[in-house]
User: Fold these one by one.
Assistant:
Number 1:
Amino acid sequence: MYEQVSHSLLNAILDDLKPEIRRQDLRHFYTRLGANFYAIYSLFFTLYGHREDFKPQMLSLVETMAKGYITRSAELERVDILREQDHNWFLSQKWVGMALYTNGFADNLDDLADKTPYFQELGINMVHIMPILMCPTGKSDGGYAISDFRQIDDRLGNMNDIRRVAEEFRKRDILLVLDIVLNHTSDEHEWALKAARGESRYQDYYYIFDNREIPDMFEQTMPDIFPESDPGNFTWNADMQKWVMTVFHEYQWDLNYSNPAVFIEMLDIILFWANHGVDVLRLDAVAFLWKKIGTSCQNERNAHLILQLMKDCCQVTAPGVLFIAEAIVAPVEVIKYFGEDAIIAKECEIAYNATLMALLWDGIATQNTKLLYQGIKNLPAKLERATWLNYVRCHDDIGFGFDDNDVRAVGYEPFAHRKFLVDYFSGQFDASPARGMVFMRNDETGDARICGSLASLVGLESAQESGEPALISSAVNKILLLHSLILSFGGIPLIYNGDAFGVVNDYSYRDDPSKNNDNRWIHRPKINWERAELRKKQGTMEYTLFNAMKKMIAIRKETSAFADFNNRELLNVNNEHLLCFIRFNYQRPSERVLVVANFDANPQYLDLDDIGGRGANLNGRFVDLYSGSKPDTYDRWIVLQPYQFYWLTIM
Ligand code: GLC
Ligand code: GLC
């Protein structure tokens, strides 16, 4: 958009830029800045226009982008240009992700680089390496309490190692995903240390208060994130004799984005990592970026404006880099992290689909898909150039954050239903084979979440103890069922470290004092590569599971109907145990895949009359992409074994 005020300002700013910045060849930079400047200026003005230092801050923002551009390598700029030309590149079905901790997957970053062939073996071409930056020992929140945003944790390696990983990945067309922890720093970060020493410039980087007056006002409406280990949202700092806002752990100080200097520092860090060859940045806990008295301090409008501004600025310098929003919030809120009032995504291009994740677990516990169906039906439509990250498990807990209206609409009472789910997965419900743990029960609200590895939650751990082959195979089938859905739903599937060969809970965290008050460690295992070798040995559970996953991934990549272009039609098929949807090729809509999944422990059938006009006369013409053969039928029914799925195409 051409707008005169901001353009004359842009010219003035460009004249003012430091001479060493001006001398460089900034052709692409100018074009992109020109295209985005109106948006950047308006957002920066909305957030910070009332401040006396607005102009110098605006100059410093443009300088940060220019500096980032100048240090971007020719190779990365080439990638930027290719991605600009093919701007829907990440919506393709070809991408399949995995999330892992460096020292859970390998010994360190160097060893991880050596293990790259494993990703190719399985078909993974996007790897989220969880936080690798400097963190104090014992006060790290699994890497999410960073004390230096530009240093690698020396237990994991150094800058050369991550460079090697990035190169190794780029050579093999694997995308590198790293975290940017935007919401807080460790209390041992230099800014926090300076603040604690009384430097007011750095005290302004955080939310710091002399007494309880304002903290108490905030507390009235702020929920507790870790009520068992870290109740309350403020921590007393004896050095300063002041209160600091600490929403997560007491050693994680919340950054104050009402200060433009904080925004610019964090943008600089984003560009630093973009220039180290990171393809996708996972922005951690984005819902929390803006704090306002009288609110839950989550999903605030200004949090969205900050993300839009980050995106617009990053696009000027490193347009090939994507953002993932990690916002584990209500379905109507999650969708806003793609951007509101827009056609094309303008905040984060990718968002965790926590809604689908929680709904899938509901299906497993109830053996029934009515809530799953209802929740998917009400999943708001995404914007263009936006996609979901579909996952079953990750390094965090599972919260049953469904929309209460959906829960009621299918006939459950929300409180009782959530209690059932927590009891089911923590194994307190008699008929449950699950071996999960309750995470952060909040006695005041009755809320609780669940931890546990995928394998243990679907009953593999208890089945292996019983030694019953039928129970083991039923757990393996549940793992495959869940993955068949995240691989076909639309979006990028994200497989969690260890899930491709059924790694169960790891109880060793209980002996580690820095971990034993956080049972999320139960599902952050270290891969035993000797055991993982069993994936090559026919007849083992690992072989069955791994090879089935590998096959599904390969088929997904070949099935263009699985790309993500709002090309899914959910079907109501009059069978409460089945989830059924059609995926079609958005360019050739006649190319369709009918996805059917049976969540029940008993065989079920799909009545072809129930899939509308398309169904009845198609009997006999279906082929299952996964098995390569015709599905089992009986009369006009397609029959599914317990926990079986089909990806049916028409011959
Ligand atoms: C994110 C991370 C989680 C961490 C939290 C606080 O949600 O996924 O592990 O505890 O942020 O940084
Ligand atoms: C925050 C994160 C969520 C995580 C939780 C920590 O709410 O957004 O992902 O599960 O912290 O348990």
Number 2:
Amino acid sequence: MAELAADQHVRYIVTVEKKKDSFESLVMEHIRLNGAYWGLTTLDLLHKLHAVDAAEVVDWIMSCYHPESGGFGGNVGHDPHVLYTLSAVQVLCLFDRLDVLDIDKVADYVAGLQNEDGSFSGDIWGEVDTRFSYIALCTLSLLHRLHKINMQKAVDFVVSCKNLDGGFGAMPGGESHAGQIFCCVGALAITGSLHHIDRDLLGWWLCERQCKDGGLNGRPEKLADVCYSWWVLSSLIMIDRVHWIDKEKLAKFILNCQDKENGGISDRPDNAVDIYHTYFGVAGLSLMEYPGVKPMDPAYALPLDVVNRIFLRK
Ligand code: GRG
């Protein structure tokens, strides 16, 4: 089996960050904070977080903060949204620098996006999606502020998005999709509500995502994509059914998507690499206990030592 080209991936991540006028940097302009989470978490998983200047990163993160609302934008001067707020909190967790936050202000921003039916909007414009339920619960939990929301209603909304096939969609009645399943299972794991899941039924749907090439897809009839290594495996781990996947075939698929010379991982073999698939490829390998990669927490999507530091120190 091919090996993980860890040094090349580290070099790729550090250079993407520096090449501000590259194609990848330009298309990621509006989601830069999200990209920072993907890149920096990958560096940490590969034991190389020190390859970047922590103080510089923290200053930049805080330049995306909106003190009036308490939320973070995807880049300097961009509007606040829960997705970037979670990324900011996650990156600050990586560097153990939550101390720079006005924690109650940030938590109030997130809690203020909860709707009457328990769902969460992504920002003031109101779009509702189970992604935002997960993001809100994950952020508030990392900040030790879950008590600021109506947790029962938050759980009830997620459960109302469960389908007959055992999966979950973006809204009640929405098609089951591995990305949304991660969000709903993660939300239920964080709130201690996994008993709402039929583990065998969902485990069966999730393990059917493994394609002949060893990779995982996000829903029936679709092509495998490296990112589903994370969305599917993390969900299977949370419901204790990860042994239903052929891990060796999946690891081989991920490793075949590497650019072994210049670093980076793509969605499928021979495609162009990007930072999103590099993160989810390495994260997937972490969930399969690949040697040299730090273990990850499947619910918080952060290295396990970072999550332990947050919850054991409290
Ligand atoms: C902290 C890891 C972490 C996540 C934050 C944003 C978020 C919460 C979760 C997103 C979950 C999600 C919906 C992932 C799927 C992303 C994806 C590859 C969508 C592509 O959808 P299609 O329809 O692709 O283009 P398929 O593969 O179905 O053809």
Number 3:
Amino acid sequence: MKNSNILNNDYFCIIMRIDIITVLPALLESPLSHSIVKRARERSLAEIVIHDLRRYGKGKYRQVDDYSFGGDAGMVLMIEPVYRLIEELKKERPYNEIIYTSPDGIPFSQKEANRISCLENIMILCGHYKGVDQRIREHLVTREISIGDYVLSGGELAAAIITDAVVRLLPGVLTDETSALTDSFQDGMLAPPVYTRPADFRGWKVPGVLLSGDPAKIREWQEEKSLSRTKQLRPDLLHNTGNG
Ligand code: ADE
């Protein structure tokens, strides 16, 4: 069954479950235990379970990686522990998506976050060192995602970023739900600048229109600023009809 996010009108709320597989659980625990994600977990709007792959490791030392065939430098996550853990999880529930974080995945975007936030159960397998045995990618993974054209030491930070971007879209997670609708990228444009009190700080003034109390004028100003900032800072977004 599909979940619904704040961008859909058809609100029927299912708790989203995210299982994250990693050899470094500590790297994920902190980013997923604060702020908006923490609140979502506390309110049972999202269930996030971090699995330590090492528990499925081989032998006394719980081995989870090995040298790659072909002699390239660097360790590769072994097929058996990953397979056993994924299959065990799959016995408990069906997964809409098994995501692998890798620099050679599709670029992560707001559009992709919106899409994932409509799913019910997802798994994220964090890449590690040289990656995971290719057979896992071919036979079990359904989506490969990159968070940018640079190489991280592992996929944990990418998994935390994907989880954060998705969880904040779930209904009831943000206190003012409309605020996600006005995020940068949500309509393919950068967000307009925002200001708070005082209206005048040492002569640095808030634009008068924002103090006018005229909602139509304010909206017009915000749209104009969104467009001019996007043109200036991210002109590519204006021509981007695909991945967002
Ligand atoms: N693992 C290493 N680098 C990564 C990236 N850029 N995106 C996702 N996972 C990664």
